[in-house]
């Protein structure tokens, strides 16, 4: 195909699970910034990561996230490379270094395994030699439910943190209620992987010890991971103490205290990626903040699930508990794999793209992140109904 | 400043050390790709990292690197997040896992400490609990020389690899001759950090076990690190064996075999960053390959060092051994800090930008990477002479 020579585009209807659709005006501004940043002779990807304009980009992105998520003052916001998968490792290293400082002991790590991503995070903690255990594991139900935490196994002594994945992109489930004090002891921080639903809804940050999210769903392109961590959890045992306790050390690039001390530029931050985060968060604030986007997201999910439920004899939803259904990743199946493939193909021909389910799950997945318009979802909902009627 | 609304720009004369200047036509194409990739409805940052076009971008980038550097078939090329600093950790983890497989033992790591970056790599290996030692350390000379390897300390038994930093960005020195078989036992692979001089000159890849390079100097924007690793070094002991030997495991996102198995998309590769690498390497091939760019780089360095040497009573070059002077990062000082600052200020006013020395070294640093034109260097050389004459 010939490469395009314009920054204009028709508004796409794209439902990919990530990397995902971004607002066209954000991409246009970012494209200009790539050549010349704020009237400077060079672009945002070419300037020093410690220059004044770079610091201003990092600082505004942090400030916008603080505003949007109403982050309390006793939290630090910072950025790492490595994606969610890097975060699986970075969190366990850093939280165990804190636990060692607090108690002089090697801690354990608790995981609620409610889908493919929390399963991977759990596996990584074990692989790195930490004592990790699952308080819940819904694999036998194909992750079709998130059982209430009152039914989870107990938090063991010496537990350094509890990990949840707030929204499971592959399986299409999402927490409607996070573990509260009647389950979780006050000194055990809750850590949430919010890679696929950050900025999609209001969140009470004060209930978490840390929130981690890859950028490439609701906030930007791939290459940066966002961390919001309560300050007291950043107090860590020394390297020598950790070696004595046989606690694996974080690679230096992921050492939370060091990264924070250097305002996320200990090593070279992908500044262009951060510029996109800045523009996306700035736009969200201008459009009324999280309250507004949450309302639209609720409406989008209601329309799409409504269409699927209206054809309940045709479509099957693997997440059988309605309360656990994701408002970001709507996973469903037709009566056969052939019809699944036909659905994806016919939808694509109508301009409704990126609907193929994850290779491990099959079926159809419509990811309706912030940048997917109400109009796109309405078109998809109409197609959902029409396809069922035509093929029943 | 008002954000620009054009993709045109005057060719900048920018000498920053990294992130660094990139070719304008590459940035323009990348800007279009951001909105719409190859005529598709969505941009390169929005498509799935496992889609066909994504795989094509990754594959072409690998192929271009293979062509440009004449990489033998028994090497793998792949990409990680984490920058050079991530590489300091990733290399030691992975090379020790190989050494454990090969020998059943925990290996040692040898480092030639010839500047700020090799010092950091050495420090990281020790910090992570590995037995690392320095065969050379020129800190007492402020890294003003790279002594011949015939004068280095011996390679100890059980050494898993020897690390060199081929070009030290901060200090401005560069290897003219890498350790050969008369120094380095054949079974000890040479690992080179080439972050600031990759693609600037011909390299005999077959002499290295592995080459690592952050992208943000000669090849692209920050966010990807390039690895070229000899295939036999990818054979690693199992996690269980490593735990038994007390060898620290790599975080999963940096496990070389796993990343290779997934064609650099085990976790979400920053595809837009890879697209820029693709466009830069494609352009280099079209312009005659490494031989051509090496000639231009030699000429640029000769012009600039020539101008400095023509005013030898005014300028001081911290790298006193001419043979060890970097062709990428030209570090120099005027007779006083005040004049250094005046030099940077006056040059900036003439459109010669990004010349301030690294905060740890001071003085002036002109980074003349591939994208810095001969014309820019000639202008700088003229200014170097004029400034000395005006201020002597």
Description:
Chain A is of the alpha/beta class and 392 residues long. Chain A folds into two domains: 52-284, Type I PLP-dependent aspartate aminotransferase-like (Major domain) (Aspartate Aminotransferase, domain 2, 3-Layer(aba) Sandwich), CATH 3.40.640.10; 289-391, Alpha-Beta Complex (Aspartate Aminotransferase, domain 1), CATH 3.90.1150.10. Chain A is built from ten helices and 13 strands. In chain A, the strands form four sheets. Chain A has a seven-stranded mixed sheet with strand order 2-10-9-8-5-3-4, with helices on both faces. In chain A, strand 3 (108-113), helix 4 (116-127) and strand 4 form a beta-alpha-beta unit. In chain A, helix 1 packs antiparallel against helix 7 (271-286) and helix 2 crosses helix 7 (271-286). Chain A starts with 12 loop residues before the first strand and ends with a helix. The mean pLDDT of chain A is 96. Chains A and B meet through helix 1, helix 3 and helix 7 of A and helix 1, helix 3 and helix 7 of B.
Largest sheet of chain A: 7 strands, mixed
From the helix content, strand content and strand pairing of chain A, which structural class follows?
alpha/beta
In total, the number of domains of chain A comes to: 2
CA gyration radius of chain A, whole angstroms: 22 Å
CATH class of the largest domain in chain A reads: Alpha Beta
Oligomer: homodimer
SSE succession of chain A: EHHEHEHEEEEEEEHHHHEHEEH
Largest interface: A-B, 80 and 80 residues
Identify the overall geometry of chain A: globular
The CATH superfamily of the largest domain in chain A is known as Type I PLP-dependent aspartate aminotransferase-like (Major domain)
Unreliable runs of chain A: none
Distance between the termini of chain A: 38 Å
Individual helix count of chain A? 10
| Annotated CATH topology of the largest domain in chain A | Aspartate Aminotransferase, domain 2
Task: Report the sheet-strand fraction of chain A.
Answer: 5-15%
Strand order of the largest sheet of chain A: 2-10-9-8-5-3-4
Give the averaged pLDDT of chain A, no decimals. Answer: 96
Query: If classified by CATH, what would the architecture of the largest domain in chain A be?
Result: 3-Layer(aba) Sandwich
Share of helical residues of chain A: 25-40%
Number of strands of chain A: 13
